[in-house]
Amino acid sequence: MRHTEVLLEEMKKIGFNAYEAMAYIGLLKKNPVSRYELSQISGVPQSKIYEIIERLQEKNVVIVIENDPPLYIPMPPGDLISIISKEYSLAFSSLEKGLTQISQKSLNDYILNLNNYDSIILKAKYIVDITSENLLISCWPDELDLLMPNLKHLHDKKVKITIIGYNLDTSFGYGKVFTHGITEEVEGERGKQLIAVNEKIALMAVLGNNPHGLWTKSKELIQLYKEYILHEIYLWRVLNDYKEQIRFRYGENLEKLKDL
């Protein structure tokens, strides 16, 4: 591709159409010139040259010298590039701000599917690491062990950590731990689950032979998983405080409680 053809293509990228770019480059080659002369130099058809010069004047790219006939000279290339650069910089800044405001309303609602154990644990660690106010977790011992270094770091930052778990040691040193009392029933009905939620992100995963889950910034799902974990904690606090009465009424594994 010849040098002029390259320049024409580059000028199209910054808002010139083909004839406008041809006319401007023609003026750089020779000026001042009349409309007729510019048509001959640039290759812009004579039937189009008047319209093209008017457009370039509107863009302040061409300056007219009063004469009979009028003569035209181009804005110097350095000035042209400087002005366009500033205009594009302002446009990009405004565009980025506007698009970001729009995207926050839609992209924050997306759900990311997680299809393997490693990605689930990686996302859970990420949630722990970025928590700044309050972290809620529902998990089993194996997953708690994997999250331990991250939880220790979070605990050192004085962030509130609340965990409900299955077969967990309640003397766990990083935050408050509540233990679920019916582990076999839960594992049989739900499978092993891992839920982690903070003020901005929620993760819910089913573990086992085919680990899968979801990761989301949806405010509605974040609230849902917070309420789920808190409900589990409230339930087992009551069960621990009134163990004998509740088991006498609903059975050792609360089987009668499910008889709706």
Structure characterization notes:
The protein is an alpha+beta fold. The protein has ten helices and nine strands. It has helices at 3-13, 18-29, 35-42, 46-58, 77-107, 117-130, 141-156, 183-190, 219-241, 243-250; strands spanning 62-65, 71-74, 111-114, 134-139, 160-166, 176-180, 193-197, 202-206, 212-216. A seven-stranded mixed beta sheet has the order 3-9-8-7-4-5-6, sandwiched between helices. It has a two-stranded antiparallel sheet with strand order 1-2. Strand 1 and strand 2 form a beta hairpin. Helix 1 (3-13) crosses helix 2, helix 2 (18-29) crosses helix 4 (46-58) and helix 6 packs parallel to helix 7 (141-156). The protein is rod-shaped and about 110 Å long. The termini are far apart. The mean pLDDT is 87.
Output the radius of gyration.
34 Å
Which structural class matches the secondary elements?
Answer: alpha+beta
How would you describe the shape? rod-shaped
Strand count = 9
The main β sheet shows up as: 7 strands, mixed
**What is the chain-wise order of helices and strands?**
HHHHEEHEHEHEEHEEEHH
In terms of DSSP E residues, the strand content is 15-25%
Low-confidence stretches: none
Summarize the SSE layout with pairings:
Layout: H1 3-13, H2 18-29, H3 35-42, H4 46-58, E1 62-65, E2 71-74, H5 77-107, E3 111-114, H6 117-130, E4 134-139, H7 141-156, E5 160-166, E6 176-180, H8 183-190, E7 193-197, E8 202-206, E9 212-216, H9 219-241, H10 243-250
Parallel strand pairs: 4-5, 5-6
Antiparallel strand pairs: 1-2, 3-9, 4-7, 7-8, 8-9
Helix pairs in contact: 1-2, 2-3, 2-4, 3-4, 6-7
